[in-house]
User: What shape does this take?
Amino acid sequence: MTDRSAYDAGLDLAERLNPGMDKALRDRYEAWLPGGVADAVVAHGWGGVYARDGLDIKTRLLATVAALTALGAQTRPQLKVNIASALVAGATPREICEVIFQMQLYGGLPAMINALNTAIELFEEKGLSA
Assistant: This one.
C-alpha cells in the first residue's frame, strides 16, 4: 500500500523535473504489475528519498548520476532520465560531466566512458554545447 503523502510529494517533484513520468510508468507496467512500479518509484523514490530535507534536489540528482555511472552500462536508460532531470534542477553539463568523470575511480574507465557518451548524446539532443 502506498503512503499517499509520500506519493503526492513524489508526484509533485517528479512532474516538475520529469513531466509525464508517472503516466509513462503506469502505461508501461500497470497491466503487468498493478500498483507496483509507478507507486514504488513515485512514492518511495521521489517522495521518500528525493523530496527529503537535508540535500537540495540538484545535489541528490548529481549523486544519482554518480551512482548510476558507477553501476555501469546496464543503467543507461535510468542514467539518461536522471541526467535530464539534473539539468532541469539546475546542474550544468560541466557539473554532470565532472561527476561522471570522478566515477572512473569507483566504476572504472569503461563505465565512465559509457556514461559520458550517454550524457553527451542527451546534451546534443537538447542543443547544449560544451
Q: What stands out?
A: Residues 17 and 69 are 20 Å apart (CA to CA). The helical segments are 4-17, 21-29, 37-50, 57-71, 76-88, 93-102, 104-107, 109-125.
